[in-house]
Amino acid sequence: MGRGRRPEAELVAIRARIETLLLSGLRAPEIHRALTGPENPAPIEVSERQVRAHIAAVERGWAERADRSTLEADRGRAIAQAEETIRVAASRSALNARSNIGVGYLNVAIKAQDQLARLRGLYAPVQAELSGPAGAPLGVAVTLADHPAEHLEPAEEALRLRRLATDLEAEAARDAAGPPPEES
Prior knowledge:
mainly alpha, about 60% helix, flat
């Protein structure tokens, strides 16, 4: 293929393929290999940098589709589809009332009604409480790090570990000393 911009239809097809691979959990290098590798029956001539640019465009598209007005439109469309499914399934259930097919359509109508109720928010909120064994409270410890360890230089990593060791030693010394004396 010569240099220059690809036709729009080809770009759309490549982006759709990349989105599918991205949704299957692959990262940019793996997607590049899937598109250009020898195992692909019709390899695409695309660089890993271009794959990353397509991934960024796909993610921007996801963000645009997730804005408030789009979500409300999608919710409205889902409600309309559920209502239509209920109407069609109920009428087909009535037509096939004397066979198992009618029961199948009735089950579809019931499931669509449940989905419709969920979409409209008709169910009461569910509250769940989590606890440890025998109802004991859960202990939660959160440790925040300035940087993920794999991104630190070796000298920074050593300094961070020395600080952590110092903090742990101080905590152990406090625990060994026991509780502070009470003032009277």
